[in-house]
Amino acid sequence: MNIFKIIQDIEKVDGDVYERLSSRRSAMSSFGSFGKKVAVAAVPLAMGSMFKKAYGQSTGGVLDVLNFALTLEYLESEFYSQGLAASGLNLGDNKNFFMEVSKNETAHVKFLEDTIKALKGTPVAKPTFDFSAGGAFADWNSNPQTFMAISQAFEDTGVRAYKGQAGNLVSNSDVLTAALQIHAVEARHASIIRRIRGLNGWITGDERGAGMPAPTQAVYDGEAETMQAGVDITAVSKVSAANATEAFDEPLSKDAVLAIATLFIKA
Amino acid sequence: MTKLTTPEENNQGGLGKALQSPMQRRAFFRYAGGTAAAAALLLTACNDDDDIDPMPPTMDGVDLGSGDIGILNYAYALEQLEAAFYTEVVAKSAGALSSDEMKVMMDIKAHEVAHREFFKAALGDKAISGLEVDFSKINFSDKNSVLTTAMTFEDLGVAAYNGAGKLFTDSGNGLTYLLLAGKIVSVEARHAAAIHDLMGNNARKFGEELIDMNGLDRALMPDKVLAAAGPYIKTKINYSNLPK
User: Nearest Cβ partner of A170 from B33, B37, B175?
Assistant: First the structure.
């Protein structure tokens, strides 16, 4: 491989590449002897560590996203574990469904923890949760309707949260793919909990749906989008505006997701 | 055979241009990065790939193209297939389905048509032509045949988008397309779960058998996806120029 050709190629994408490299431990000045000193087979690895330093921020970015996702998965996993363990919560025929969901969320926690460690990061600590949200959902673990409303809010939030972070994971294809795979599972959960609650599996406009408490509206704000990447969906497809909004789920920013999650985290 | 292109050729263009950055940044990182987690992740990311034989590459037929355009055309092809299927279901299966089931089918049809027309407009003059489908094996008067096919298409669509996400370029329009694919794949997953639910007469199944021990849905690469979709697509598809 031609190391200089690679740097030149990167320059076409990132004009600051030389500056990044030289400003970090003057990599460029030692570049002349670099190729001679390092055996050919080891070059990719050495390049990797050099670029990891130059682009250190993007590696941190992936870990930040993973820890953000882990926080959300802690929230969901703990919610289902505690709910299923609550003697006063009768989920009836739906109990099996929630047990499957609980299993998936617990697996997500483990998977994210393992991945963060494998990337030499430190998994964030699990917060202490208050699923009554300071009393707003006081009967969350005794009234199935309340439990299921919170479940819907969490699952629909999870879908939007992962979607909002996809662009921050592109530097690591494996992590990106895994995040998409988790994202789809959250969407499957969301569809079913919505159907159990008598709604469609998909989100119409920015409607939170019948029976959803007002504080959950933040989960749905911004979903009523009919323009996608400059394309007017109703104009090109002739489907209704309602169907057009259903056909595309919208992302949610990290801040918006954390604002929702924080309602359930004990200070 | 049904021709999938709608009569009104409404190409909005706009998005389909100015792609093909000189180098795919991710390809570089994959080479140089040597990511620590790769080994751990690959064990899981490659699961479920084993039960489908990849479709051998063909050089003739419709060329999906390369780069981001190729991936968009790949998605466009899958959405054409889905939209055509649900169009047939809505037209032919009223006698086989309950009104609740048909309502779901009508919604999904609208969503898939929206997806198809989005890709067509986004691709502009780079869009592949309308594909010819082959639904001869589907009995549209039989509920089980209809729902089983719907389930196959939706689960496959989810796996296809999950697998294709990493193939987009890592900056500029590639990021836009990745987000768009993300907006669509979760809707496909919502569909998939709803169909699993209908299959079990509202037993609240959602395809859990497809989810691995790490809680991950499937991710399949284009050769596997097109092999699985192949029996329903009459037009030959050349995917050999897609990013790897």
Answer: B175
Model pTM? Answer: 0.81
Strands A227-228 and A231-232: antiparallel
Q: Please report the residues numbered 36 through 65 in chain B whose beta carbons come closer than 8 angstroms to any beta carbon of chain A.
A: 36-42, 44-45
Which residues partner with B62 through β-bridges?
Answer: B237
Which pLDDT score, from 0 to 100, does residue B54 have? 84
pLDDT digits (tens, 9 = 90+) for A187-217: 999 999 999 999 999 999 999 999 999 999 9
Q: At what angle do helices A144-165 and A254-262 cross, to 10 degrees?
A: 160
Q: Whose CA is closest to B156, among B69, B81, B241?
A: B81
pLDDT for B89 equals 98
Domains annotated for chain B, with CATH where assigned, are 36-123+134-238 (1.20.1260)
Distance CA(B237)–CA(B58), nearest Å, equals 7
- What ipTM was reported for this prediction? 0.82
- A129's tokens: 């949760």
Radius of gyration of chain A, Cα coordinates, nearest whole angstrom: 23
- Residue A52 backbone phi and psi in degrees, to 5: -60, -40
User: Which H helix or E strand runs over A114?
Assistant: helix A95-118
* Chain A residues with beta carbon closer than 8 angstroms to that of B194: 191-192, 195, 201
Q: Which residues of A touch B45 (CB under 8 A)?
A: 174, 177-178, 181
Q: Residue B157: which of B136, B187, B131 has the closest Cα? A: B187
Specify the residue for token string 């994959």: B30
* Nearest Cα residue in chain B from A56: B33
The C-alpha atoms of residue A235 and residue B120 are separated, in whole angstroms, by: 13
Those residues with Cβ within 8 angstroms of residue A252's Cβ, 6 or more apart along the chain or in another chain: A157, A160, A161, A163, A164, A219, A222
Distance (Å, whole) CA B221 – CA B45? 11
CA distance B167 to B67: 8
Q: E strands along chain A, which residues? A: 227-228, 231-232
The three-state DSSP-derived secondary structure of B134-183 is: CCCCCCCCCHHHHHHHHHHHHHHHHHHHHHHHHHCCCCCHHHHHHHHHHH
CA atoms of B57 and B80, how far apart (whole Å) = 21
Mean pLDDT of chain A: 85
Tokens of B167: 């193939």
pLDDT in tens, B101-158: 999 999 999 999 999 999 999 999 999 999 999 999 999 999 999 999 999 999 999 9
Q: Who's near A157: CB < 8 A, 6+ residues apart? A: A72, A219, A252, A257, A260, A261
Distance CA(B233)–CA(B235), nearest Å, equals 6
**DSSP states of A207-234:** ---TT--GGGGGGTTT----EETTEEHH
